[in-house]
Write a sequence for this structure.
C-alpha cells in the first residue's frame, strides 16, 4: 500500500518536472520526464496520472511537430479516458448492486422480525387465553372431591402464571423505552416486583380462602344432599 502511494507521488512529481521543463523551453527534458511519469503510472495502473502524462506528451510532441508520436499518445489518452469511464460505470453498477443487496437484506430481516413478533404475540395471546381457563379449572376442582392441597396448588399456579404473563407482556415496552439497557430494565422490573409481590400474596391468600370456602360449601351441600337421600 505504501509502495503504491510512493509510485503515485513519484509519477505526480515527474509530471510536475515535465511541465516545468516545458515552460522553460526544454522540450526534450520535458518529454523524458513525462514518459517516466507515464511508464510508472501505466505499470501501477494509475489511470488518471497516465492520462495527465499522455495529455502532456501530446502537447510536447505537437510542439516538436512530431505528429505521429502526438497522434499515438492522443489515441492512448482516449483509450485511457474510456477505460476510466468504464471503471467508473462499473463502480456505479457495483455500488447500485451492493445497495440493492443491502435493501433486500433489510427487507428480509424486517419480514423475519415481523414474523417473529407475530409469533410472540400469538404465544402471548395463547398464554393469555390459557390462564383464565386454568383458573376456571381451579374453580371447577374446588367443586369436586379433590385434595385441598391440589386446589391450593392450582390456584397458586394460576396466579404465578398471571404475574409472569404480565411481566412478559410489558417487557417489550420496557426494553424499547430503556433502549435495551440491562441496568434500566433490571431497575424497572425490581420496582414492578416490589409492587406486585405484596399484591400477589394478598390475592393468593384471598384466592385460596375463596377456593377453600367454595370447596367446603360444595362438600357441605353434597353431604346434605346425601343425608336427604338417606332419610328418604
Amino acid at each position: 500500500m505504501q509502495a503504491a502511494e510512493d509510485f503515485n507521488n513519484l509519477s505526480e512529481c515527474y509530471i510536475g518536472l515535465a511541465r516545468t521543463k516545458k515552460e522553460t523551453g526544454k522540450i526534450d527534458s520535458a518529454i523524458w520526464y513525462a514518459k517516466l511519469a507515464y511508464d510508472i503510472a501505466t505499470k501501477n495502473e494509475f489511470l488518471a496520472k497516465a492520462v495527465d502524462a499522455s495529455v502532456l506528451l501530446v502537447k510536447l510532441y505537437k510542439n516538436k511537430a512530431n505528429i505521429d508520436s502526438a497522434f499515438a499518445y492522443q489515441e492512448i489518452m482516449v483509450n485511457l479516458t474510456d477505460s476510466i469511464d468504464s471503471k467508473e460505470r462499473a463502480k456505479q453498477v457495483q455500488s447500485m448492486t451492493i445497495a440493492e443487496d443491502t435493501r433486500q437484506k433489510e427487507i428480509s430481516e424486517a419480514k423475519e422480525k415481523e414474523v417473529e413478533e407475530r409469533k410472540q404475540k400469538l404465544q402471548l395471546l395463547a398464554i393469555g387465553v390459557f390462564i383464565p381457563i386454568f383458573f376456571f379449572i381451579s374453580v371447577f376442582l374446588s367443586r369436586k372431591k379433590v385434595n385441598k392441597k391440589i386446589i391450593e396448588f392450582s390456584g397458586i399456579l394460576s396466579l404465578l402464571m398471571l404475574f409472569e404473563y404480565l411481566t412478559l407482556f410489558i417487557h417489550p415496552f420496557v426494553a424499547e423505552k430503556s433502549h435495551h439497557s440491562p441496568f434500566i430494565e433490571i431497575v424497572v422490573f425490581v420496582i414492578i416486583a416490589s409492587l406486585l409481590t405484596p399484591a400477589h400474596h394478598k390475592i393468593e391468600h384471598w384466592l385460596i380462602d375463596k377456593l377453600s370456602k367454595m370447596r367446603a360449601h360444595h362438600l357441605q351441600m353434597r353431604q346434605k344432599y346425601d343425608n336427604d337421600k338417606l332419610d328418604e
Remarks:
- The chain has a mean pLDDT of 75.
- Residues 72 and 225 are 120 Å apart (CA to CA).
- Residues 67-142 form the longest helix (76 residues).
- The helical segments are 2-23, 27-43, 47-63, 67-142, 148-177, 182-231.
